[in-house]
């Protein structure tokens, strides 16, 4: 019995390691420009994304956005999950979110979505302050706590580096919705300017 349990545990560990390695390999590249406590200064290059606007709480937005973007990826035979997924709340009053999945191709080569709610676009190169979060941030209360902890640190670092915030906290979901929360890692990011503004 013990051998069966050890074998089963080894399979789970192997699956988790393999899955994390796979999804880690499709993260967008960036240049690290320094570490300030828990915050890392990153510079991302131009990125091509498929973006859709959805409404609801954080969990509903993640679920709806993932389904719509995964369907686009399947219909156009883009051979992977619609990940990583950038989730940004753009209207606090009406709980409107943009959900953007990174595309593994240039904008000119990306197939036009059949669903007109999905827009293809380029994100300009950007500078962000980022930190890792272990566990799920799909829950509204948990995300609110993370924002409350992170934004004062961002404000302080902006004063020291003489920059200005360009966004609220953007969540980069690295893994699909079914990946266990115990093993999830997300990137919490705030876009900032390069110079004093």
Q: What is the succession of H and E elements?
A: HEEEHEEEEHEE
DSSP helical segment count: 3
Molecular shape = globular
* Major β-sheet annotation: 9 strands, antiparallel
* Quaternary state of the chains: single chain
Q: What does the radius of gyration come to?
A: 18 Å
Count the E strands: 9
Family: Belongs to the HEBP family.
Protein name: Soul heme-binding protein
InterPro entries: Reg_factor_effector_dom_sf (IPR011256), SOUL_heme-bd (IPR006917)
Provide a descriptive summary of the structure in words:
The chain has three helices and nine strands, in the order αβββαββββαββ. By secondary structure, it is of the alpha+beta class. The protein folds into two domains: 29-45 and 126-197; 47-124. The radius of gyration is 18 Å and the shape is globular. The protein has helices at 2-24, 58-75, 140-161; strands at residues 31-36, 39-44, 47-55, 85-91, 96-102, 119-123, 126-134, 170-173, 185-192. Helix content is 32%, strand content 31%. Strands 1-2-7-9-8-4-5-3-6 form a nine-stranded antiparallel beta sheet. The N and C termini lie far apart (65 Å).
